[in-house]
């Protein structure tokens, strides 16, 4: 059974020492990965990767904690990158109230990037942390592109999950799904329709059990699949086929 990872950051320096070897193994075991943009420096790195490796797709966006100096020049940089056909979405963008950053600037950057996504009808990869109510209200008011989007690394409960599903969004699930204390998260997954679920790793962050405390990588998405399979009671090739179909539909891929 071959897997996909719809949210990784393999361009980050934590992969510098063994990236070539890792990519070789990924190409053998996964159909594709999607490297997700988080700011200005990530855009050029992702463009280089998607042009060099067939199994890598990418997105461009400014993470909410990287929006302090966000302006029209950044929008122009993103728009230029969107000319590359393997750039499949805008993201990750959103609201993150966990860190002490300017919330007004987060809202402004989120709005600007959502408008860019609507202009080009690209799906959005949302990052939401400690801001589920605020993000929901803003997204509902602003409106998502026809292409849709996903709430990356969903980390709340079924009540919040249902609200975002009702907006037409997918939910991404990562290593925390395997953490012992995350019963609310597992309940949210159990109630989420299987055709609205995406598998993610958020590499190099959030490694699944039994790798907590170590660097995560796309190969460990296997453990996310196993937990989704166990909770949804859908096994083997059926789960792989469904999750890949979900990703292909959202990101308009034919792989």
TrEMBL record:
Single GO molecular function: hydrolase activity, acting on ester bonds
Annotated binding of a divalent metal cation 2, by residue: 127, 152
Annotated residues for binding of a divalent metal cation 1: 7, 9, 92, 202
Coiled coil spans: none
InterPro entries, per database record: Metal_Hydrolase, TatD-like, TatD/YcfH-like
Sorted UniProt keywords: Hydrolase, Metal-binding
SUPFAM superfamilies to which the protein is assigned, alphabetical: Metallo-dependent hydrolases
Any GO CC annotation of this UniProt entry: cytosol
Keyword Coiled coil recorded: no
Matches recorded under PANTHER family: D-AMINOACYL-TRNA DEACYLASE
Protein name, per record: TatD DNase family protein
Lineage: Bacteria, Thermotogati, Thermotogota, Thermotogae, Petrotogales
